[in-house]
Amino acid sequence: QVQLVQSGAEVKKPGASVNVSCKASGYTFTSYGISWVRQAPGQGLEWMGWISAYNGNTNYAQNLQGRVTMTTDTSTSTAYMELRSLRSDDTAVYYCARDKTLGAFDIWGQGTMVTVSS
Amino acid sequence: DIQMTQSPSSVSASVGDRVTITCRASQGISTWLAWYQQKPGKAPKLLIYAASSLQSGVPSRFSGSGSGTDFTLTISSLQPEDFATYYCQQANSFPWTFGQGTKVEIK
Asked: What is the mean pLDDT of residues B83-105?
């Protein structure tokens, strides 16, 4: 079946980096984009950015520019999100989601909890 | 950036009630709008895309309408499994943005 499976929970210290993976299966990976969305504890959804799995084009949220990098590996149908210079307010569940091509996210990963704490 | 404002922030309703949630965009977004349902500890689920298109597998009691700046999500007859938080999201232009969410609670 169509699914996105994310890597496991991470605990990081302030200033460190985290890399979250998102492995796709059940569909042609390069036919869709992938967005990353995060949700801080008890808060709403925040769109972080989008990457085309076809050509690697990206678009990032302004508030994360310079700290976030999204990439894909088409040989393994995996998307990656790296966030650098972590701060305590980066503590959140991070989701990858498939873009249905109309900017709607029809398939979601299970989420990866990233905790930033000294 | 396009700001998405949902109202109300929360609503208390009973099983069988008709529930309407509103989403307003700070500028026109045509019909580039999606609605999601999220239950605690779970990933969001796509309900409606392109403002009024029902995602495959979603019950027909969910419907969406609107264009430009004003949109609504309607649940025609609330079921026990519908108690959740609902989000709108615009995809007219980057950065894509979500509304703050509307929690549908049991009355």
From this structure: 97
Strand pairing report for B102-106 and B10-13: parallel
Kindly provide the residue ranges of all beta strands, DSSP E only, lying in A40-91, ordered along the sequence: 46-52, 58-60, 68-73, 78-83
Residues of A in contact with B32 (CB under 8 A): 102-103
Residues A106, B95: C-beta atoms closer than 8 Å: no
CB A21 within 8 Å of CB B63: no
If you ran DSSP here, which 8-state letter would residue B4 be given? Answer: E
Strand A3-6 to A10-12 pairing: unpaired
- For A108, the token pair is 């979601």
C-alpha distances (whole Å) from A51 to each of A34, A101, A112, B25, B63 are 5, 12, 18, 24, 29
Please write the tens of the pLDDT for every residue from A55-91.
999 999 999 999 999 999 999 999 999 999 999 999 9
| Rounded Cα gap, residues A88 and A13, in angstroms | 9
Q: Could you say which DSSP state residue B39 is in?
A: -
Q: How far apart are the C-alpha atoms of A115 and B58, rounded to whole Å?
A: 33
Question: Is A45 within 8 Å of B1 when comparing Cβ atoms?
Answer: no
